[in-house]
UniProtKB/TrEMBL annotation:
TM ranges: 9-29, 49-71, 78-95, 115-135
Keywords: Membrane, Transmembrane, Transmembrane helix
Origin species: Aedes aegypti
Protein name: AAEL001358-PA
């Protein structure tokens, strides 16, 4: 079953949008958050300061690069690093928010329980569903290879050798 060209473009477009926005925001937030110092009171915000920000920023840059390669070459395996890193980050934010709410250390510092909730309710499903659609697209309707220069010889066939005469 061949997919409509417009639908294929539409699905890949969302992947390109996610990759573009993530590629712009990753260095920006990495640079901004790595300069923030942390004290012993900010242990819960350790992920958002110092060395962890730099490590995760580099990991995000690598994942973004692999995502763009995966979309261009239509390889599902190149999408996995971005998806895994997205889910790890989401899990870390949820754990942090749950801790802040349970401990009473300022629920207003949370990501899921303040004004950013409507934004997160849009972004998280958008990214997850777009990645699922890309993976499904690459499974159902893979890109057609146009180079027919490769010839595979049958190794299991009979070995008949004809005599070749050169020059007559």
């Amino acid at each position: 079953m061949k997919m409509d060209k417009f639908l294929r473009f539409f699905i890949k477009f969302h992947g390109y949008c996610i990759c573009t926005v993530s590629s712009i925001l990753t260095p920006l937030f990495t640079a901004l958050m790595s300069t923030v110092g942390h004290t012993r009171y900010d242990l819960i915000d350790l992920r958002f300061t110092g060395i962890p920000v730099l490590i995760l920023g580099i990991a995000w840059m690598i994942a973004n690069s692999l995502l763009i390669i995966g979309i261009v070459k239509e390889r599902k395996t190149f999408l996995y690093p971005f998806c895994v890193l997205f889910l790890i980050e989401l899990f870390m934010v949820v754990l942090r928010d749950m801790y802040l709410v349970i401990s009473g250390d300022g629920w207003y510092k949370t990501a899921f329980f303040n004004v950013t909730l409507p934004l997160l309710l849009f972004i998280v499903p958008y990214v997850v569903l777009s990645m699922m659609a890309l993976m499904r697209l690459f499974d159902v309707d893979p890109i057609q290879k146009t180079d027919d220069n490769f010839v595979r010889f049958d190794r299991d066939g009979p070995e008949e050798v004809d005599r070749v005469t050169i020059g007559g």
